[in-house]
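User: These chains co-purify. Model them together.
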Amino acid sequence: MMSCTDVAGLLEPFVDSELTPATLLDVARHAGHCRSCEAQVADLLGVREALVTGSERAVAGLDLSGVWPHVAREMDRVDAQAAWRARSEGRRVSRRLVVWGSVAAIAAGAMLMMRGPFLTTGPVAGDGAPAAPTRVAKRLPNSVYIDRLAGKDIALRREPKSGTTMIWVHHEVQNR
Amino acid sequence: MSRQTDQHAVSPGDGELVLRARQGDRQAFRELVERYQRKVAALAVGMLRNREDALDVVQDTFTKAYQSLDRFKGDSSFYTWVYRIAVNLCIDHQRREARYVPLGVDADEANDETVPVTSDDLERNEPFEHARSQEIGARLANAIEELTPDHRAVILLREVDGLSYEEISQVLECPKGTVMSRLHYARRQLQARLRGLR
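Assistant: Joint model of the two components:
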């Protein structure tokens, strides 16, 4: 049989039914023969009884009939908020689509404009009529652009060491 | 002996009601509210020692439960989850208000010194018993008020609601060992207050 020392730490789990059936029986057997441990069990159960009684009295006078109507009203509010959030999320998505669509259209337009000067026409068709232009962008070397600019009122000189291109402008032209 | 903890065992009814409530069935949620409102109220009155505040917490608990229903994973039982919401709301309320009304369940009742002896008591010739139980109630109230919210929650969940250590640890989100040590401390405090009356 268990001693008081063995049982000391088990009395609370005993009244809470938190022991294995075998240990529960051992503690019960000991408490049945030991006045001190039996009194401790009675003390623990007394506290429980007092708490349960106090709680029952407290809740007995409590009118809970208003709980559901209140909760139902709150549920309406929660649902309305959720619906509003869903709607505004939908609006946000469509606004985002419009904005990104516009950006994409602008970008596409800008690209077409930039590609324009580099378009080349395709070969002439056999009957002499020009063939439909092929939309192939052709990037020309930088020297071509420099040559196009040079020879008028300005002159371009390239520094061989640094690779920098200098633009020389005629004095008269500058004062015009 | 301890009250049955299996009265709270996961009821298939709860799971089904939660599922239906999630799909928009209000009647299902109403059933859940009506099933647990009294238990939540008992916990809230015990924690807050004030009926009005307790009623507010009961309403807020179920409103919050409805709001978070989609987040309820079902790895714990519905009532454990609801208790967790209620305990957190009680603790928040106590922190916010920091006002404690003496027990007696209600301020009015607590201040009413002339406790009426009912005809029932007289018929059973138990006026002394009645006075004794009033004294126990008053002492218990003082002892509960002196406990921290965590200790108060543990003792109420165990003694009034009959939750197991495991369930309490789920509600309070703390280890089982902490539940046991808090319970031991709270019991010692209450026993010390009641000594000599029983």
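Chain B is about 70% helix and 0% strand.
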